[in-house]
Design goal:
Layout lengths: L2 H4 E4 L3 H10 L1 E6 L5 H12 L3 E9 L3 E6 L2 E6 L3 E8 L12
Antiparallel strand pairs: 1-2, 2-6, 3-6, 4-5
Length: about 100
């Protein structure tokens, strides 16, 4: 798998921002087939940060329904893989640089 295909996008939520400040831990949405070694290489290459630890989990898809004029619309959100990357002390990743 190419390193450019491993990282999909960073996860920017309140919980993820709190972990960035307190624990130096960043959350990323990654490819389902990516393993921890590929994720580590991709983070170090693209962001230049020293990776200490990686935790991965597969977030299951969820059923969603909306009520509209036409009635209920049912759908499903897709499952994805999430990687929590802990970087070395004193190292930061600037997620807002490319906006």
């Amino acid at each position: 798998m190419k390193l450019s295909e491993v990282l999909i996008k960073p996860i920017l939520t309140e919980k993820a921002n709190a972990q960035q400040e307190k624990l130096n831990r960043y959350a990323f949405k990654v490819a389902r087939k990516a393993n921890k070694l590929e994720i580590k290489k991709a983070i170090e290459e693209f962001y230049g940060a020293t990776v200490v630890d990686i935790n991965t989990s597969v977030v299951p898809g969820k059923d969603k329904t909306r009520y509209t004029k036409a009635g209920f619309i049912k759908g499903r959100k897709p499952a994805y893989k999430k990687a929590l990357v802990t970087v070395a002390e004193g190292t930061t990743i600037d997620l807002y640089a490319n906006i």
